[in-house]
Every structure is written in structure tokens, then in C-alpha cells.
Amino acid sequence: MKVAFFGSPAFALPVLDAIRTQFEVVLVVAQPDKPVGRGLKLTPPPIAARATGLGLPLSQPARLRRNADFEAILRECGADVAVTCAYGKILPASLLAVPQYGFLNTHTSLLPAYRGAAPIQWALINGEPVTGTTIMQTDPGMDTGPILLQETLPIAPQWTSLDLSEALAGQAARLIVTALERLGRGELTPMPQDDAAATHAPMLVKEDGFVRWADSAQAVVNRYRGVAAWPQTTAFLNGARLKLSGLEVAEGEGQPGEVLGVDAVGVVIACGSGAVRVAGVQPETRRAQPAQTWAAAAGVGADTRFDVWIPTPE
């Protein structure tokens, strides 16, 4: 089985590594290099760097639609099947038809739940106890293709998006190898998705990291877990932005955003119901510090109230 692999971020590295130990990877496709850091140094995505290091054929097309040159590259590589994992571009129908077995996608949710760009993050924000990995046959829609394999994964209560990503990357790596083995033996049966049961996981924006103090304490913590990788958790005090870390549910009741106390562990802040304890604070243009250290320096105590940010209705 000859495989073309489409992926870009570090999340996809275990999947590529698992495939190449069992199958012949004849082409790796990744996003183009992008400027990174303050110096805006042009940097390849992790999958491109790994492919170069392994000496695998690499292509980084800026676009896929109406790109005859890239379509020729895909045809000429001789791939029997293509696998996508967090590639980051929509695949046109003309490309999907090139490999004999089409494209298989590793999606980090139990489809049809959480179709879209950020299934890991939204599963955590919504407080899901279980998620999983789906191997699906890619079609021109957004994660709408038939399901080939699916496996659940319980979500530990303390996991952030970083922890869940690591667990799902390992699961996806194992499951895609199984899918490719069964594909070669003709043992996969596609199952159509129930579109009526579909939910969506759109790409995060910065405002998704803003604390909603009017929410329940558990909802505030769930959002913190979901946005841990990006955009992280932001609160406002007298208009100033603060990055918060180490949020957990705590005892206490009060007005949303009201500081209930400062102790050796952190700052306790009331929510719509219950309270959360914040362990770390990073003011703008300054380094992160223990929340109690920040509170003492900033004069924050039981009479302080954080700004209550309310999202604008769509």
C-alpha cells in the first residue's frame, strides 16, 4: 500500500510516523512555510520539517484548486490512498478522485459530532466526558464523508486541550494503521453519517478565550481547558487584560467577577454559580506570576471585581 500523507502541525507527527513504519509513504504534502516569531523567520510546518529530515518527497502547494501542477505530482507519486491529518485546506473533488482508494481523514471527534476545525477545543469547552477519533472517507463536504472506523476516548476531568490533543494523536496514529490494513484487505464498510445529528466546531477566535464570569464555575473551568493551547484564558480588570492560568472550581458564592478572597493557592473569584480559584496571572507586557503575588502587588482583595465581559449576540 503506497500512501500520500497530507498534514501540517505537530499533532500530525505521530500519525505520519505510524504510517511510515507499516506502509510506503510516497509523498508528503504540507502547508507552505510561514513567518514565525518576532523576527518573522520563514519556518516550515512540523510535518514538512519531518519529511525533509526523513528524505521523503515533499510538496507544499499554496493552493489546491485549479492547480494542475500539484494534481500531476499526486498522480505521478503512485499513491494507492491518501491520508489527511490536520492538513488545514479543503480538498477539491478533482484531487479526491486521484488515488485508487481516495482520501482517508483522521478526525478528532465522534462524527457526526463536532464537524469542523476545532473539535478538541469545543468538546472541552462544552464539558464533554467522552470524545474519540473517526477515520472517514473524505468527500467534498466539511467532515461529511462516510465513517470507516471509530473509537471512543474518555476525557479526564483535568485535561486541557494540550493533554487531549496528545491522547488523540496517539489514538489516531493507531487507528489509521488499522484502517489502512483493513482497506487493503477489503474489510472496511463505509457507514453514512446522520446529518441531522451533526454538531459543529468552528475555528476559535480570540474572544473565545475571554472569561464569562456570569457562567457557572464549571463552565468557566471548561472554557479554560478548551482554550489552553490558544487563545488562552483572558480576563479584564478595570479594562486591563490579564492572562489567567491554573483555574479550578472552588467553594464560594458571590456576584459574577467578585473576588472572594486571596489565599496561598491563588485568587478565588465568584461566577454565575459557584467560584473558581486562579493560580497564575500574567498582566500585559509582564511575565506570568503566582496569582497571590500579583494580587498583593496590584492591591486586589475581597473588594475587587473583575469586569464582566458579555459576548455580543450573533
TrEMBL record:
It catalyses: L-methionyl-tRNA(fMet) + (6R)-10-formyltetrahydrofolate = N-formyl-L-methionyl-tRNA(fMet) + (6S)-5,6,7,8-tetrahydrofolate + H(+). SUPFAM superfamilies: FMT C-terminal domain-like (SSF50486), Formyltransferase (SSF53328). Pfam families: Formyl_trans_C, Formyl_trans_N. Residues 1-180 form the Formyl transferase N-terminal domain. NCBIfam families: fmt (TIGR00460). (6S)-5,6,7,8-tetrahydrofolate binds at residues 109-112. This is Methionyl-tRNA formyltransferase. Its EC number is 2.1.2.9. The keyword Transferase applies. InterPro entries: Fmt, Formyl_trans_C, Formyl_transf_N, Formyl_transf_N_sf, Formyl_transferase-like_C_sf, Met-tRNA-FMT_C, Met-tRNA-FMT_N. The keyword Transferase applies. The gene is fmt.
